[in-house]
User: Which sequence fits this backbone?
């Protein structure tokens, strides 16, 4: 099937998109994060509303947070200003501008807005934006130079399982990932990587092993931080793949095993994304304690024994 046909099929299966106001961010949150040198920092993430990503990854649900058409000039700066004006002092160490797309796609972040965003990010020691590896290049380096703080670019590597990687419809080639990682490193820009657990087309029994292998791949390419993301259903395509036996929704046990298996890696912070993780654990008796354990490991980076549960047998 051609890429265009795959895009069209994935889009056809999507449920209706909520109305999104391009002048109001979806939300913001402050979290404690660990860095590879052991430092703890506070990070303010702003979830921005803007144009949809031109890629159409099969597992993606970020399009829900996007508008139809390009981001209006000035809209992103207005969103960031509103959040910063409502934030207390002192400001956190890091500002994450997550626009549910690619920061270096001019349709998503108009070129004229980048200087304004760089100025708004002035008080922060570090800034994180997200991008597909295919849109990392000279404009990334220019944005890094315009910042007072240090730039970090977050990219989705997802999985290095060869068959799954090809079928995610992400158009991500590993040599391109490697080149982008090198470019960032050579220019003093940090790399944050997203890796999936429960990626479609990876057999469920191999899912954790492939997640750990993919995290290791990112670590060897210089990633500072790797976040393990459980694949969430609900976009139509995941339900189609599930009905074909090509997707098994991940479990909390797999997320736990993947994180535990990645604590061996040094020089990089590996975390498990626990947002909405309740959906992956059916057991009322242990769900909360297990999610809290993941959150503690995320911040401390120290192994902890698993939560044992007499009700579901988790151990
Ligand atoms: S590149 Fe990222 S934002 Fe774009 S479709 Fe893929 S997962 Fe979604
Ligand atoms: Zn239980």
Assistant:
């Amino acid at each position: 099937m051609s890429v265009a046909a795959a895009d069209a099929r994935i889009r056809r299966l999507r449920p209706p998109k909520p109305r999104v106001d391009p002048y109001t961010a979806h939300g913001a949150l402050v979290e404690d994060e660990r860095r590879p040198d052991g430092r703890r920092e506070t990070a303010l993430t702003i979830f921005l509303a803007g144009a949809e990503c031109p890629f159409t990854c099969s597992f993606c649900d970020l399009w829900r947070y996007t508008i139809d058409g390009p981001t209006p000039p000035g809209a992103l700066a207005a969103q960031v200003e509103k959040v910063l004006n409502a934030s207390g002092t002192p400001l956190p160490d890091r500002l994450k501008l997550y626009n549910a797309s690619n920061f270096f796609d001019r349709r998503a972040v108009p070129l004229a807005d980048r200087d304004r965003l760089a100025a708004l990010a002035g008080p922060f020691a570090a800034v994180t934006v997200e991008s597909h590896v295919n849109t990392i290049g000279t404009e990334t380096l220019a944005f890094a130079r315009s910042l007072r703080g240090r730039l970090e670019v977050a990219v989705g590597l997802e999985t290095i399982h060869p068959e799954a990687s090809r079928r995610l419809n992400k158009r991500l080639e590993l040599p391109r990932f490697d080149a982008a990682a090198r470019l960032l490193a050579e220019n003093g820009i940090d790399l944050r990587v997203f890796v999936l657990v429960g990626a479609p087309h990876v057999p469920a029994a191999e899912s954790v092993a492939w997640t750990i292998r993919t995290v290791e791949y990112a670590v060897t390419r210089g990633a500072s931080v790797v976040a393990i993301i459980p694949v969430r259903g609900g976009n139509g395509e995941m339900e189609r793949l599930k009905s074909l036996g090509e997707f098994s929704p991940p479990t909390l046990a797999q997320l736990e095993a993947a994180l535990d298996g990645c604590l061996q890696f040094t020089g990089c912070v590996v975390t498990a994304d626990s947002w909405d993780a309740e959906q992956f654990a059916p057991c009322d008796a242990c769900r909360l304690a297990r999610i809290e354990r993941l959150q503690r490991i995320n911040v401390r980076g120290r192994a902890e024994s698993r939560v044992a549960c007499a009700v579901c047998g988790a151990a």
About this structure: The mean pLDDT is 96.
